[in-house]
Amino acid sequence: MLFGRSKKNPIKIADKGIVEWKYAACGYCSTGCSIEVGLNAEGKPVSSRGVADADVNRGKLCLKGIFEHELFTSAGRGLQPLMRDKWHDAWQPSTWDATLDKLHDEIRRIQAEHGPDSFAIISTGQMLTEEFYTLGKLTRGLIGTNNYDGNTTLCMSSAVSGYKRSFGSDGPPGCYEDFEHTGCLIAWGSNLPEQHPIIYWRMKEAQEKTGFPLIVVDPRVTMLAQNAHIHLAITPGTDVVLMNAMMHVIFKENLHDQRYINANTNGIEALRAEVEKYDPVTASKICGIDEDTIRVVARTFAKASAAMQIWTMGINQSTHGSDGVVGINNLALITGNIGKPGGTSLSITGQCNAMGTREWSSCSGLPGFRYLEYPEHREEVGKFWNVDPEFFPKKRGMLQTDIYQAMEAGQIKGLWLIATNPMSSLPNTARIRKAMEQLEFCCVQDCYQDTESAQYAHVYLPAGTWAEKDGVMTNTERRINRITPITPPPGEAKPDLWVFNRVAERFNKDGRVTFPERAGDIFLEMGQLSKGRLADISGMNHELIEKSRGIQWPYTADQVERGEAPPKGGKRLYTVDGVFSYPDGRAKLIPLPFIDNNEVPDEKFPVWLNTGRLIEHWHGRTKTGKIGNNNKYSPIPFIEINPDLALELGIQRGEYVRMVSRRGDAVAMAMPTQRVPKNMVFLPFHFHDCANRLTLGLLDPHSRQPAYKQSAIRIERIADQVAAAKLSMEMRKF
Amino acid sequence: MFQVRPNEPDYALLKDPSSQTLNRYGKSIETAPEGDALRAQNFVINGEACAQQNPNRYKQHGFYFNADNCIACHACEAACSEKNDNPAHIAFRSVGFVEGGTYPNYQRLNISMACNHCDDPVCLKGCPTRAYTKFAEYGAVLQDPDICFGCGYCTWVCPYNAPQLDPVKGQVSKCNMCVDRLEVGLKPACVSACLGKALDFGVIENIPEGRSQAKTVIPGFPSPDITHPNIRFQQTRATQRDMVRVDSTPVKYHKDDGSGTFTPVLDPKHDFQREWNWAKLLGSHENAHIVFTLAAQTAMGAFLLLSVGAWLGLESIVAFIGSAAYLPAVVALIALMSFGLFKLNMHLGKPMRFYRGFNNWRLSPVSREIAGVSLFFGGLAGYGFFSVFPSFPFAELLKPAATVAGLLGLSFGGYYMIKLYRIPARPFWNHWQTGASFIAAGLGLGALFLALFAAGFNSLTPELTQMLASLIMFALLLEGVGLLAHARDLRGQGEEGDASFYEQTTTFGNPYWLRNGLLGLSLTLALGIVATGNSMLFAPMALTLLATAIIGRALFYVLVIPTTMPGAFFWRNKGFVEHARETGLANMPQLGVVPDRH
Q1: Are B588 and A194 inside 8 Å of each other by CB?
Q2: Using a CB-CB distance cutoff of 8 angstroms, which residues of chain B are in contact with residue A636?
Q3: Does residue B210 sit in the same domain as residue B358?
Q4: CATH code at B365?
């Protein structure tokens, strides 16, 4: 059997010489996987692996997590603070003291000259919760601008808004364990295998055991759609119509859960009256799903022992994003599918700590899902922070998308941009560029110095990334998990928390408000503030969280006193009747009339532009574009284009094409595939100077989230392919 | 020793309570019976001898791939590259895909593939340096990059794209089956990382829990007949009639309704436009082979004419040997051969290790070719030496000895030079035309070589003219007949050979027709010389014949489309790799394509 030689060759297998493993929750998506990073004898991070006994990922990681240790040494990291007079001057090396003084002085100058709200602060969904909390305290309690938001407006704001409208509070009620109990799963605009691969694996594990029907609503034949029992290739932007029609069938065929509706909801009459208008025949003409299929899906869903709905950007990034979420909640409520094993409406979140910012950043109000609009909340938090409650605004200010429109109109003069890159991520880049250009002062705080938005900054602050910092994050199933500082930030870069505390010192000269230095202490302070709230975390601390591989909220001090250990998983919200977050404990059933305000393809711009994500990339690609073993699967932008359309336009596989919308144009390589219909192309949004040169991004009336996924474009063949290749390459730094 | 965690998840643990005795090809699954000497030898990983813990250590293991479930999440590839510390441009495991149907009745079939640790490892047999070993432990086919000299022949013969030639390091490396993990009872890193519940691993022919099939083929996977690969598949979902490759290879897989199996057929991806593409044709990684084969075959042909001609007492040859042209011609032959060998050697990833080329003379046609060609070169050098120094002691004995050695080397090396291209996974080469073309090049260019030297030294007699022109005419006819037969046997017959012909008439359509025209012209000129005896025609013919040979040989290398795994749109797409190198994208970091160093 031994071929080749009579003596065995010595076998050499790579050995990275790992001497120690350190713990962190993953810093990419919101699945919340537990990672161990391996360090070699020199203390260098050289390996990543999934934590075997973590309930979320059970030892697994996706390709981004597997190479997450390479982030620490990736190119383009900021190593020292920088400053300049004008954004078009060259950067000058500076010091922390000088740059932070400048930031403080400019905030106060602009506020003095143009009013307190003329300085905006925009953060992210990717910092640690203690950092969000500290920034919120600093902004709401000391700086006092009401134009403070995070980039979560671009991904989760519709889910937040929909949850609030239906249940009276944000907070996804389900958990991953629901897959194991469900009798039917509908995925609305969610491509789990690509967007949330570990959640997909949990779903697949459960599905192989129980065989529940999987229904996927997506205009594109994703891997999930292809593997679904029923794939509904819906017309973009018409989900609400399909939801209404399903409810129409459910009521018509008496498949609703009257007991649950009576015990838990308000507004059933108005809802029934509205969905009465959406018989499957009428609806099929709008949403493109035939009447029989609508009926089959409605029946399958309503008759299931427990039915679960998940959704992601296909719902959220729409002019009906918030309505779509409410529609999903309506379907769940009328069939009694909230708070029971396998019955839930679970928003699959985007960024690693989008939930943390929703809970604790004070962007949309005050910490712990409190509202600026409620005097008792202002009172409570003001007292807790030692801030005059009258200092708080009485109403929430603008969201990120509105802030940029105000910036464009000259109402916002200064901006502190933290760990987000709107030059890549906001729709209609040309307008964003103009808005940024005319700022009197802009400070960019980011772990990467080469973030595109830094080109308009006057001050650059180098921050730590991911596990260079200490703190917690909350995942999609409300699980708080720990990040331990695995390695210090490079050069003079500092953790964001350190930066916020140093800025706070400058606004807090009298020391009135306390800003603990240690993340662990901040967490305990948050615990105090969370007592009795929906997201009660008073039973947790950093050590217990790490030991438990993350704990789902709520976990209260009372539970600790009773000696209850934190559950491994499977924790749900609203599990008994009448406990929704509205004052009367009832959820709202909200009728959803459909208004078609999408930019629908027409003669001049005949093709739908559908944007979305790829598994190998993370958002603006600032991270994954620098990691070869992620980036190589799609190093340049491409479109999925139907081969019949490509043939008509004379476009061949692998040629560059020009896409033109009413906003501008962009270049990408053509990948002909029948995955998309003839009147649609799919363009990944990750690449700078590409998708968002085209997108319109109409804003949802409730959530102010842009409709990235519904724009109209035309496609043009490029005769000079050499020039196109050069142009495409120039627009890619990585 | 691989460090096992106390709480390794169940999915990562090897589970093979029982196994079959023989695999489906009749081969014993137990690789070395109890008491076999191979079991007595230590199994050493990273310098550490491992005591046997795994009860199934001496059974053939293999991957199991559930094509119904793969979602192309790349977790297997990432886990593999992370464990083996591979840079972006090297991957022991890759995911490609084929697709079919019409929206929304569309289907994509992803295929994750690494090494199949075959029963008949063609890589091991092909490798000239003996860098490969098929171990009794797990039946793993392991390769040692420290032995390899980077010729890349294993990458030619393997149908699964398993061996990875690294242009930066100049060596091959490949999947090691994670034998360090197997030793401690863990499945390989890729399998443990799988998120689609697609990839599994165990003793071959064992079907994992919850799976029902153990097929040997799925659409896009090459015929298992070539190597008897140790991989089994499940693929229960109905497939579209045509499953198309998305990389630049003009191949799709067509379903046979009877057997349900798929065979590769032509998929004309880029129309039927005829192009030149000189840069691609002559600038390929294989151009060292163009130089070497043509130089060696010319030298062999000329040497054969001189030596055999002299022994047979052919007057024209004897006269040539007696002429002023003889010594310069012999010296030039040695120089030509040296140049060819130099180019060949420098094309190796590790030229300093050239001497390892003989190591696998028992199995590898490459080793045998190298041995034969070396013997020929030695013989030629000796022949030359004693021709220049006829009064050297024992020259009258040593010169014939050198000649015999040269002829032996010529026959042996020449045979294996042809044989090594008869690769089942490369249908375009695996035809008798390869031999015909090589022999024709030897005779035609060898004869032309002598004619030019004779003419240059005013020694071109009418007899020599007649003889050499006739030989050239014969060579060109042989080449022509071979080309016709090649076309008849491959074109329109499906498989990758058909795709090669498509590329020949489109991407390289103009050079192809130019070569055909030049071949015809050369033949006409040869006929002209034979008919009229006008030796002046050798001058234009030198140009046409040489151009015919160079273009023809360049086409030979550039057109071969291996029977191999489908790639993806960017990753493992030859078209994108070429595009990235042409445009300079490859110079960007983290692209997964490195600039070609040759």
Answers
A1: no
A2: 570, 585
A3: no
A4: 1.20.1630.10
As a whole number of angstroms, the distance between CA B349 and CA B170 comes to 4
Longest dimension (CA), chain A: 86
Among A226, A229, A616, the strongest candidate for a mutation testing the B interface, having the largest count of B CBs within 10 A, is A226
| Cβ-based neighbour number of residue A42 at 10 Å | 8
Based on the domain organization, do B439 and B524 belong to the same domain? yes
Best of B5, B7, B74, B199 to disrupt the A interface (most A CBs within 10 Å) is B74
Boundary of a domain, candidates A31, A51, A73: A73
Q: Tens digits of per-residue pLDDT, B59-100?
A: 999 999 999 999 999 999 999 999 999 999 999 999 999 999
> Does B104 contact A204 at a Cβ distance shorter than 8 Å?
no
Of B79, B246, B570, the CB nearest to A66: B79
Instruction: Supply A372's token pair.
Output: 């600026």
Q: Hey, CA dihedral for A660, A663, A667, A669, is it positive or negative?
A: negative
A135: left (phi over 0), alpha (psi -120 to 50) or beta: alpha
- Residues B91, B174: one domain? yes
Residues B563 and B427 sit within 8 Å (Cβ to Cβ): yes
Q: Looking at the domain assignment, is residue A701 inside a domain?
A: yes
Name, in order, each residue with C-beta under 8 angstroms of A576's C-beta and a sequence gap of 6 or more. Answer: A339
Q: What domain range includes position A396?
A: 82-153+353-467+485-515
| 210-249 in chain A: CB under 8 A from chain B | 221, 223, 225-227, 231, 233
CB contact under 8 A, B147 and A61: no
Nearest to A648 by CA among A673, A681, A678, A605: A678
Q: Does B73 sit within 8 Å of A197, measured CB to CB?
A: yes
What is the spatial distance between Cα B207 and Cα A675, in angstroms, rounded to a whole number? 32
Maximum CA extent, chain B:
89
Helices and strands, counts by H and E, chain A? 26, 26
Nearest CA in chain B to A624: B590
Q: Give the domain CATH number at A38.
A: 2.20.25.90
Within 8 A of A675 by CB-CB distance, chain B residues are 99, 103, 106, 108
CB contact under 8 A, A2 and B38: yes
What's the structural domain count of chain A? 4
In a domain, A1, yes or no: no
β-strand partners of B101: B106
Residues 6+ apart with CB under 8 A from A441: A106, A110, A413, A414, A415, A458, A459
Q: Pull the structure tokens for residue B478.
A: 């042989």
Distance from CA of B566 to the nearest CA of A (A): 14
d(CA A527, CA A688): 39
Indicate the residue type of B167.
P
A662 vs A512: CA distance, rounded Å: 52
Q: How far is B313 from chain A (nearest CA, A)?
A: 46
Is B159 in the same domain as B137? yes
d(Cα A134, Cα A126) in Å, to the nearest integer? 14
Question: What is the C-alpha to C-alpha distance for residues A546 and A349, in angstroms, rounded to an integer?
Answer: 22
Nearest CB among A1, A231, A634 relative to B32 is that of A1
Which of A221, A627, A734 lies closest to B106 in CB terms? A221
- B363 interaction partners in chain A (CB closer than 8 Å): 3-4
Contact between chains at B108 and A223 (C-beta distance less than 8 A): yes
pLDDT along chain B (598 residues), means of 10: 93 97 96 90 90 94 98 98 97 97 97 98 96 95 95 97 95 97 98 98 97 96 96 95 96 92 93 93 89 98 97 95 96 98 94 94 96 97 96 94 98 98 96 98 98 95 96 97 95 89 96 97 96 94 97 97 96 95 91 82
Domain that holds residue B550: 278-558
Q: Any idea what the Cα angle at residue A715 is, between residues A714 and A720, rounded to 5°?
A: 140
In a domain, B174, yes or no: yes
